[in-house]
Amino acid sequence: MRAWGLLLLVALLTLGSQLPAALARRKGEKSGGCPPDDGPCLLSVPDHCVDDSQCPARMKCCYKACFRQCVRKISVKPGSCPEDRLRCVSPVQHLCHQDSDCKGSARCCLGACGRDCRSPARG
């Protein structure tokens, strides 16, 4: 009887260690991120997918041209982009396209004047 109790305890601890990772993503959501959607919107195009589970292995269900479709996922660094409260008076210019374009822990964040590399927000 004691062996069964120990086995049950080990099983619960093992499952519990996997719980935070499983709860961090919605059901069916794959790791990685979506590339920026900078293209013009195509009018009246229905979504091609609803969630990541409908896409092939290395793809995610993301907005592109203003409708959801399966696109190649990109790597995303930890942390979130800081909020930008500025208004831009110059033309939009993107200095990065995705997090991997930025050095160290910096993230490629959308700001008032376009995307640039920024330190992630704390919290």
TrEMBL record:
Among the entry's GO cellular component annotations, what is one?
Answer: extracellular region
Q: Which residues form the WAP domain?
A: 27-73, 74-121
The lineage is: Eukaryota, Metazoa, Chordata, Craniata, Vertebrata
Domain of life per record: Eukaryota
Signal peptide, first to last residue: 1-24
Q: Keywords assigned by UniProt?
A: Disulfide bond, Signal
Organism this protein belongs to: Lynx pardinus
Q: Name one GO molecular function term.
A: peptidase inhibitor activity
Q: What is this protein called?
A: Wap four-disulfide core domain
Which Pfam family name is an example for this entry? WAP
